[in-house]
Structures are given as C-alpha cells and as structure tokens.
Amino acid sequence: MFIRRIKGILCAFYRTFRATQTALKIFKTRKNICWDDPAVQDFSRKWGTEVLKDFNVELRVEGEATSEAAIYVGNHLSYLDIIALYSFKHLCFVAKSEVGTWPIIGAATKAVGSIFVERNSARSRVATAEALKKAVLDEGKSVCIFPEGTTSIQGKDWRRGVFRVAQENSLWIQPMGFIYTPIRRAAYIDDDTLLTHMWSLIQKDKTLLTIKFFEARKITDTENDMKQMEQEIRAWVDEQLKKQGYFESEIGYIE
Fold first, then answer.
1. CB 3.0–4.6 Å: which of 43, 48, 105, 108 could bond 20 by disulfide?
2. Cα–Cα distance between 39 and 34 in angstroms, integer?
3. pLDDT tens-digit profile of 80-105?
4. How many domains does the chain have?
5. What is the CATH number of the domain that holds 121?
6. Could you tell me the sign of the dihedral formed by the alpha carbons of 88, 89, 92, 97, in that order?
7. What is the largest CA-CA distance in the chain?
C-alpha cells in the first residue's frame, strides 16, 4: 500500500507537469489556437482520465449536460471535481487568483484559459463578469464556476454574481451535483493539506465519484432561480450523504 500511494502521487504530479508542458507548447507554437482545438481537448481529457486512475477514483455520470455554451454550477467538495470534469467535458474554469501562482498547476490553469478572480476585489469581480460574458456569449465556451467559493461537505450559501451575469445576458446555466463514496476520503476540507489528502485518498478499494447533471435553464429571476437550483442540488447531495450514514446537525454533517 505504501508503494501504491507513492506511485499514485508521483504519477499524478508527473502527468500534471507533462500536461502543462504540452499546453504551453501548443499555445506557443500555434498562434491561432482555438479553445475547442482537438489538440487542447485531447490532452486535457487524457490528463483528467489518467489522474483519476492514479488516485483510484471511479467516475459515474448521471443525466446529460446541455449541448449549448453554458455556465456550469454546482456544489464543491474537492479538487477532484475539476479533474473529473476535465476527463470527459471540455470546460474553462473560474478560479481564485492564488491558483494561478501554484507550482505546476498554476501554469496549467493559465494555459487552458481559466478566468481568475480576486475574491475581495470589486474591480476583479467586475472584470470576471465581463470575461464570463465574453467567453460564453462571444466565444461559445462553456465555463464552470462553483458559487460556494470553497470546498465543503455541508454546503455554503451561493454567491449571486454569476446568476446576475447569466440573467442580464440570457446565458444558459447547467446545474450539477457531486458526491463521493466514501465522502470524507475525497472531500478536501477543514485543515486538509494537498499531500496528506492525496496520501489518504489512495486506497486499495476505489473511491466512487458520481456527477449528476440537472436540467439546464435560463435565469429569469436571479434570487429565486439561484435558490431553486441550490436547493435541488443540495437535496440530492443530502440524500446521497444519508445513504452513507451521515446526518445533519447544528455543527454540520456528522456520522
């Protein structure tokens, strides 16, 4: 088991490094590279698929996502959420600005067109809204953003900004839910650190990740539509958590 864990972690970092180099090479040598270029889609899909295997995570997808350029929103449990989406869906991501400075991962996120936002900067949020509108409406990209802003099991209140942008520009919203079995092995929360989390994640038995796509829709009422989607996803997640023996209390979810 020790060897398996070491091998999994080293392979994941090596694959990420190689994927970053591939991305940078593509964008450097081909001046007119497009977001939906087959070469870009191929390396990002391959990277996501192989890293999931390194961590012994099995992916299951329920429902179908819209074929329209859309903003993907959902609950956020782990960095694995993003890796899994890359493995089968070609998306851009909205990420906190710090991610762009991370070793290896930072360069990769920049290379694949991520949109970065400084959480406490009003100017950055305005710029992000404009970038989001341009990406979906003008460039036909699908963009993923986690309205909770951070990872958690019990869920946090969604931020409204992305839904205002969607309503003002008549953009499609694609809701989705994430659940892992067992949940705590994969959830990246509290005082978790990357290496220790990866170490405990890699087990002999697989970790199952289920992603459920709900009905895509357009926003007509920012507050009500956002709350409806949030509650719909939360209800599904709660149901899956109860199947794992979790229940909700005043201090969050406990076993």
1. 108
2. 10
3. 999 999 999 988 888 777 777 776 66
4. 1
5. 3.40.1130
6. negative
7. 55
Ranked by mean pLDDT, the top range of 125-134, 140-149, 207-216 is: 207-216
Question: What's the mean pLDDT in 119-128?
Answer: 71
CA distance 117 to 202: 31
User: What's the one-letter identity of residue 70?
Assistant: A
Per the CB < 8 A criterion, the answer to whether 1 and 204 are in contact is yes
By the 8 A CB rule, do 103 and 203 touch?
Answer: no
199 and 5 in contact (C-beta within 8 Å)?
Answer: yes
* CB contact at 8 A, 80 and 191: no
- Residue 174 main-chain phi, psi, to 5 deg: -110, 100
Residue 253 counted as domain residue: no
Question: Is residue 255 in some structural domain?
Answer: no
The mean predicted confidence, pLDDT, of the chain is 85
Degrees, nearest 5: CA angle 134-139-143: 70
Domain boundaries, position 170:
2-245
Helix%, strand%, coil% for the chain, nearest 5: 50, 20, 30
Q: What is the pTM of this model?
A: 0.89
How many residues appear in the chain? 255
Residue 176 DSSP code: E
Alpha helices in 55-144 (DSSP H): 80-88, 105-111, 122-133
